[in-house]
Design brief:
single chain; 182 residues; alpha+beta; Glutaredoxin; 4-stranded mixed β-sheet; 4 strands; 54% helix
Length: 182
């Protein structure tokens, strides 16, 4: 079970003490995507484990919690925001996510927060593992792009970076990430 916190300041303080990232979901009453998340994705054992190990989970009402919403450009529910202990945003995405998509997104969000802390080796291992688990998911192209960027930050080798970008173009030719490549 994911034990959601309902207070923004408490989540930030808990994240600061634990060193974990914050996973914020905005929700509202009668949100069909929120209901689907509760009935499927949030019951998945891999999601529960990943969230509990890596995040301080925070759930706020987009209508009622104006203070929390003031910090983020939330206009839709469910919407997901990935932040550090100070609440600084590193990644966000809107809408219902099935189990596999949500696991990929959880890895993207965590990687972006950890990259900001300079934890390149940890991020590289995280991305390698996520790519191995979700090789065919369309969102995995974003994992590959982050992997290429992280590899470059670790090694500063442009040729290796370009080879990793070519891999994205071959594996995910229609992805937004492939279109970013010259």
């Amino acid at each position: 079970m994911i034990n959601w916190i309902r207070n923004f300041d408490f989540a930030k303080e808990t994240a600061r003490k634990s060193g974990k990232a914050i996973l914020l979901q905005f929700r509202m009453d009668n949100c069909s995507g929120c209901k689907k998340m509760n009935e499927s994705s949030y019951l998945d054992k891999d999601i529960i484990q990943f969230v509990n190990e890596n995040y301080i989970p925070l759930k706020l009402d987009i209508v009622k919690d104006r203070e929390g919403r003031r910090n983020y450009p939330a206009i839709w529910t469910p919407s997901f925001y990935f932040a550090d202990y100070s609440g600084k945003l590193f990644y966000s995405i809107d809408g219902y996510l099935n189990q596999e998509d949500f696991l990929v997104v959880l890895n993207i969000g965590l990687a972006r927060v950890l990259l900001s802390k300079g934890k390149y080796n940890e991020v590289y291992d995280l991305l390698q593992n996520a790519i191995k688990k979700h090789p065919k998911n369309p969102r995995t192209a974003a994992l590959y792009m982050l992997k290429a960027q992280t590899h470059f930050l670790l090694n500063r080798n442009r040729e290796e970076f370009l080879k990793l970008l070519e891999e994205i173009a071959v594996l995910f030719p229609n992805s937004a990430e492939a279109r970013q490549i010259d």
